[in-house]
């Protein structure tokens, strides 16, 4: 109890510090980089739209999204890290689980969505090109047009840049190099300054106004409420204003509410305390498949923000009940280094699939005939947490009333704010990612040192190279 009281007080003090950092124009060197722009961004996006409508940043996002939806049937989102995971998390959480498999009529004008540039995987990229060239689809399927959202704040991340070069070439082949359509189907999102991607797009004749900007004061993994998350979400036909409203509400709660009603402070405090006590493996246990990618997004947020100077908890995402049959053993019985953060959804979206009565009862399930899938999940959740509690394995719960644009907006903002608070509690600067920068530089050097193939020769699997 003393520790809890101490951490409540400390977390509340840190909240004041994080709030004040928003006003710091010239941070001292030991606080750099300082990128608190994400804190007020959701509210600013909404206010800007109210005042300036189409001329606001959100207005531009909506306009570009509408243009893509009007022009193409498939959209490839290119980006990596903070320029990829937010849109993947939003897509998985809020779109139909089989969105891409659905016929156009049922998708109601929403394009199919694919993610690339988030790796360097030759064969996956070739498979995507086959799909885009319509060579591996049902023969009677009408040729589908496709477009690209290319996201890179720095504008020179090698994975995204190389994928974009290849995709840009494919697009030129698909539409014809001089086609007017080319400019319409490419939507870039990049930093304001020194971005090679911006220069390339400008040289390709994409108007400046159609290139969305990630502001300097917002770091990659904190950029979900810039065009980075909003444009793909709007292309998917999601209610981005509801998402922003959820996020803005969370910021207000963070700033105004006392600890006992403040989910940001509570989450940061519990996680900080447990990490300090040696629970250095942090499991995000999502009790819905649809939230697994939110877990991947949080893995990145935590790793890149707090995994510094030899410290920081190691994040892992699991899905209940799937991973109870794999990792569950270790969580129950393995090394005592884990805190399990359950991410729970109270209300499912669709009517319950019932177990029901069957003519044959060899499976012995008729006893549960009047129970449904949500009852099963709830029983598993309670069973697992009771088992953890029995052997003193700590857990904490984040409860969403349902999965919607509004709750996902709240959740993402809550986790970003909590990560910054936790960083300040631990004395770690949550912004910047020097470790990632080191690998990027090394990769570039290694690539420069790799011998070139003879001119015109393609590295070919068939030749056994
Ligand atoms: O959080 C971050 O800053 C990183 O994960 C970046 O988002 C990632 O490295 C991609 O960088 P960029 O958007 O510059 O291509």
TrEMBL record:
Catalytic activity, EC: 5.3.1.9
Gene3D superfamilies: Glucose-6-phosphate isomerase like protein, domain 1
Protein origin, superkingdom: Bacteria
GO CC annotation, single: cytosol
Involved pathway(s): Carbohydrate degradation; glycolysis; D-glyceraldehyde 3-phosphate and glycerone phosphate from D-glucose: step 2/4
Domain SIS: 64-255
Entry's Gene Ontology BP terms: gluconeogenesis; glucose 6-phosphate metabolic process; glycolytic process
The UniProt record lists the keyword Isomerase: yes
Keywords from the UniProt entry: Gluconeogenesis, Glycolysis, Isomerase
A Pfam family assignment: PGI
Listed GO MF terms: carbohydrate derivative binding; glucose-6-phosphate isomerase activity; monosaccharide binding
Reactions this protein catalyses: alpha-D-glucose 6-phosphate = beta-D-fructose 6-phosphate
Family named by the database record: Belongs to the GPI family.
Protein name: Glucose-6-phosphate isomerase
């Amino acid at each position: 109890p003393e520790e809890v009281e101490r951490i409540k007080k400390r977390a509340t003090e840190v909240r004041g510090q994080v709030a004040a950092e928003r006003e710091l124009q010239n941070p001292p060197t030991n606080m750099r980089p300082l990128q608190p722009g994400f804190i007020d961004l959701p509210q600013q996006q909404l206010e800007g739209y109210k005042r300036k409508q189409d001329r606001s940043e959100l207005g531009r996002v909506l306009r570009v999204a509408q243009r893509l939806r009007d022009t193409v049937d498939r959209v490839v989102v290119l980006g990596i890290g903070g320029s990829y995971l937010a849109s993947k998390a939003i897509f998985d959480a809020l779109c139909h689980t089989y969105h891409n498999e659905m016929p156009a009529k049922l998708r109601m004008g929403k394009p199919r969505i694919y993610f690339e540039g988030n790796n360097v995987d030759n064969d996956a990229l070739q498979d995507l090109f086959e799909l885009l060239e319509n060579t591996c689809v049902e023969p009677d399927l009408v040729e589908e047009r496709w477009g690209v959202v290319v996201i890179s704040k720095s504008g020179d991340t090698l994975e995204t840049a190389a994928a974009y070069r290849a995709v840009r070439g494919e697009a030129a082949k698909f539409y014809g190099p001089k086609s007017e359509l080319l400019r319409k189907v490419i939507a870039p999102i990049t930093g304001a300054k020194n971005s090679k991607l911006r220069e390339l797009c400008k040289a390709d004749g994409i108007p400046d106004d159609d290139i969305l900007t990630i502001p300097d004061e917002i770091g990659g993994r904190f950029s979900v409420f810039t065009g980075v998350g909003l444009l793909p979400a709007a292309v998917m036909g999601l209610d981005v204003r509801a998402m922003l409203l959820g996020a803005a509400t969370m910021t207000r709660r963070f700033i105004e509410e006392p600890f006992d009603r403040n989910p940001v402070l509570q989450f940061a405090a519990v996680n900080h305390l447990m990490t300090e006590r040696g629970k250095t493996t942090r499991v995000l246990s999502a009790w819905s498949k649809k939230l697994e990618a939110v877990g991947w997004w949080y893995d990145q947020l935590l790793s890149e923000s707090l995994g510094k100077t030899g410290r920081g908890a190691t994040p892992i995402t699991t899905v209940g009940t799937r991973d109870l049959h794999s990792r569950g053993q270790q969580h129950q019985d393995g090394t005592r280094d884990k805190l399990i953060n359950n991410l729970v959804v109270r209300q499912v979206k669709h009517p319950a699939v019932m177990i029901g009565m069957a003519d044959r009862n060899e499976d012995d399930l008729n006893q549960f005939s009047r129970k449904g899938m949500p009852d099963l999940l709830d029983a598993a959740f309670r069973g697992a947490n009771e088992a953890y509690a029995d052997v003193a394995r700590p857990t904490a719960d984040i409860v969403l009333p349902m999965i919607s644009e509004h709750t996902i907006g709240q959740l993402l903002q809550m986790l970003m704010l909590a990560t910054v608070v936790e960083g300040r509690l631990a004395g770690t600067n949550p912004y910047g990612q020097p470790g990632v920068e080191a690998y990027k530089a090394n990769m570039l050097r290694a690539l420069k040192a790799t011998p070139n193939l003879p001119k015109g020769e393609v590295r070919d699997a068939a030749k056994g190279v």
